[in-house]
Amino acid sequence: MVTKVVDLRSDTVTKPSEAMRAAMAAAEVDDDVLGADPTAQRFEAEMARIMGKEAALFVPSGTMGNLVSVLAHCDTRGSEVILGDNSHIHIYENGGISTLGGVHPKTVPNNPDGTMDVHKIVAAIRHRDGAMYYPTTRLICLENTHGNSGGKCISVEYTDKVGEVAKTHGLKLHIDGARIFNASVALGVPVHRLVRAADSVSVCLSKGLGAPVGSVIVGSKAFIYKAKILRKTLGGGMRQVGILCAAAYVAVRDTVGKLADDHRKAKVLADGLKKIKQFTVDLASVETNMVFFDIADPCITPDKLCQVLEQRNVLAMPASSKSVRLVTHYQISDSDVQYTLTCIEKAVEEILSGNAKFEHLTNGTTTNSYGH
Predict the structure, then answer these.
(1) Are 241 and 37 a contacting pair, CB within 8 Å?
(2) Neighbouring C-alpha atoms within 13 Å toward the C-beta of 286
(3) Which of 15, 116, 139, 368 is least enclosed by beta carbons within 10 angstroms?
(4) pTM over 0.90
(5) Domain residue ranges in the chain
(6) For 105-127, what is each residue's pLDDT tens digit?
(7) CATH class, range 258-352
(8) At what angle do helices 38-51 and 242-255 cross, to 10 degrees?
(9) CA–centroid distance for 167 within its chain
(10) Enclosing H/E stretch for 285
(11) Widest pairwise Cα distance in the chain
(12) What is the CATH number of domain 18-254?
């Protein structure tokens, strides 16, 4: 007998739907490295249209999508990119922009809502007359939604303002839009309008949208031409990739309309967690599908809580030494949410009573591994 697991570690854990599997099986394919895969071409054209950009390119992962984008804009070694000190690109992508691209990161503090103060962005831009001593600023990166800030949405007004800064100073703007559709739905702003100020955007297809694999980057035709070469250089050129693009097309078609429900369930989770006295939750901070809660009782640690929950087939992820993250997705039901809250209450009771048994985690969860 297979026991249902409620997996709230991330929205990356979804399994392909039957419609996705059927689309993959029926996909018309050819060699995409040779530019001949018709399903990939159709999907990329559709994503460019949806995002309001000239062209798009399918890549294996969000990390590669961001890396390719940064390297395409910063194609001279010694370039510098301005980005948040708590951003995904800076923290969770293995330092690829510097390790592989010779691009120097200039960090600006992220505010609790995921933004960076605009005046600090401006102050971080290098003066051209200092080129003898300093890296050359060429790019600004934003992240929407902002994962480390709890899935906060970056407003279109703020994005436009940063876009104006970039344009005024002759820079480019890239948006790490791993969950940009979540932001679009939560803000009630069409996704193409939300990213209009950006020169490039990376969109993760396997997070909120629930595709099994891949991301897409969008931008001008000239940008995508450079990006395609970089994708090949990094080993991301795949052959009959239309099989994956077929599933991604279904994900975009079928899942965007479900994101608001994911957000609703996250708020239900947060509301239930707030009623547990050992936890603190900022309900106002739950804007999309992520819930972070802090543990106030020193007898309960995130690792202990996640271990006891796993024994009840609820998977969660420690976010820090004092907090836990839960992420909803379209394969989490209302009954799953209620079951999770019940299990968390019982887990707290077990830990505090000394009756909990702690074993090695089997779900691959480790502290501070939530860059997903």
Answers:
(1) yes
(2) 27
(3) 15
(4) yes
(5) 18-254, 258-352
(6) 999 999 999 999 999 999 999 99
(7) alpha beta
(8) 40
(9) 25
(10) none
(11) 70
(12) 3.40.640.10
